[in-house]
Amino acid sequence: MQILDIIEKKKQGFELSKEEIDYFVSGYTENRLPDYQISALLMAICLQSMTARETADLTAAMLNSGERMDLSKIQGITCDKHSTGGVGDKTTLALTPMVVACGARVAKMSGRGLGHTGGTLDKLEAIKGFNVQMSEEAFLNQVNTLGLAIIGQSKNLVPADKKLYALRDVTATVQSIPLIASSIMSKKLACGSDTILLDVKYGKGAFMPTPQKALELAEAMLDIGKHFHKDVRALISNMNEPLGFAIGNALEVKEAVETLKGKGPKDFLELCLCAGSQMLQQAKLAKDDTTARAMLLEVIENGKALDKLLDMVALQGGDSNQLKHVELLPQAAYTIDIPAKQTGYIHEIHALALGKLAMRLGAGRIRLEDNIDPAVGIVLHKKCADYVCEGETLATIHTQKKLSKEWLADFYAAYSIQSTAISKTPLVYKIIM
């Protein structure tokens, strides 16, 4: 078998066999095939796409390149969720304690953020002492006793994806649905949970620009789930504006805590209820959406959801007192209110632009080795469709230094304020299963 023949075959638009896919994945992972040849093949895949069968075989090849988590020692159905990423997306911090307080089991491996937002691990590490590393035995024991543990991904989990993603990132081959779907699903399948809920986002702050493209990606991932006999469901959700009000690690932890107290932003709570409802049905704990939502709202009202988060933080070495008294979380040197320059209705808040502005404050990283400042970020006061008066505060900036004129100009450019009223776009476009 020759890699040149495989490249030529895909360049011509033909289907690759399982053996050919296994050959190039194992060959590249084991350093037997060079970057330049795999780059050519990735570009051919981007241009010619892959069938559902090819995508499933690619997922399997990447899945088989490394270790898998064995969750068989956990009692009951184990649940996992994955978001394709966005600005202000702190969903895991609130959603997982909610579903666990209702009886679910969540054994979650999360990653760090790269680019305009922090990842789940970065947000949790804003809490003093929180440990994202633990032995497999301790991880499984915590899920069995508490119902919830969130840790970093093993270095040996899907090494093929790590190599292929790094190459895609520098060869303009990231935006391919088969490549995105196999990348996400190989990692989720390797984590070993019985059920997977996917939050596939679209819009200006997401990988997928439109709900139709997000739906295409979600359906590709559900096809992979069916191939592996997994219960996989998906939400298609709007990321044209940031989720909730807070952007930045400690600020998002605070907002998650407020949500578990019943005082969070309406859009963020709604996403948690939609996602949590599906997860409880996947775990066979609720028969329908109405029952599941009632269960989730009850554990917020009676404080059991917040208790689950506090217990997880304490068990993983974190200072849970910072969540009981959120003013103890990292604080920036300055808080600066940004006033509106005109009166009208907010037609657009460009999520990606605000995410990049938060990164420039130190809330995100350009390279994985970069340090994140947990204290900095942006807290919105107004969202899309809201009415704002000239001089009224649009957002409060948490920063360690004074804001430059360039930063402020870019902030205002992220907003579109017009005289005509608009309707709020629904947060969840569709649920598929």
Task: Describe the overall structure.
The protein is of the alpha/beta class and 433 residues long. The chain folds into 3 domains: 3-48, Transferase, Pyrimidine Nucleoside Phosphorylase, Chain C (Transferase, Pyrimidine Nucleoside Phosphorylase, Chain A, domain 3, Up-down Bundle), CATH 1.20.970; 78-324, 3-Layer(aba) Sandwich (Pyrimidine Nucleoside Phosphorylase, Chain A, domain 2), CATH 3.40.1030; 331-418, Aldehyde Oxidoreductase, domain 3, CATH 3.90.1170.30. The protein contains 17 helices and 13 strands. The chain has a 6-stranded mixed β-sheet with strand order 3-2-1-4-5-13, sandwiched between helices. Strands 6-9-11-7 form a 4-stranded antiparallel β-sheet. Strands 10-8-12 form a 3-stranded antiparallel β-sheet. The longest helix is centred in the middle third of the chain and has 17 residues, at 211-227. The mean pLDDT is 94.
Topology:
Layout: H1 3-11, H2 18-29, H3 35-48, H4 52-63, E1 78-83, H5 91-101, E2 105-110, H6 120-124, H7 136-145, E3 148-152, H8 159-169, H9 177-190, E4 195-202, H10 211-227, E5 231-238, E6 246-247, H11 249-260, H12 266-282, H13 289-301, H14 304-315, H15 321-324, E7 334-339, E8 344-349, H16 351-361, E9 377-380, E10 387-388, E11 393-399, H17 405-413, E12 415-418, E13 428-432
Quickly give the structural class.
Answer: alpha/beta
> What is the radius of gyration?
22 Å
Mean pLDDT over the residues: 94
Mass-distribution shape: globular
Query: Any idea what the CATH superfamily of the largest domain is called?
Result: Nucleoside phosphorylase/phosphoribosyltransferase catalytic domain
List how many beta strands DSSP finds.
Answer: 13
Query: Which fold name fills CATH's third level, the topology of the largest domain?
Result: Pyrimidine Nucleoside Phosphorylase, Chain A, domain 2
**Count of discrete structural domains:** 3
The major β-sheet equals: 6 strands, mixed
Strand proportion: 15-25%
CATH class of the largest domain: Alpha Beta
Q: Work out the helix count.
A: 17
Distance between the termini: 38 Å
- CATH architecture heading of the largest domain: 3-Layer(aba) Sandwich
The amount of helix comes to 40-55%
Question: Element order, helices and strands?
Answer: HHHHEHEHHEHHEHEEHHHHHEEHEEEHEE
**Poorly predicted residue ranges:** none
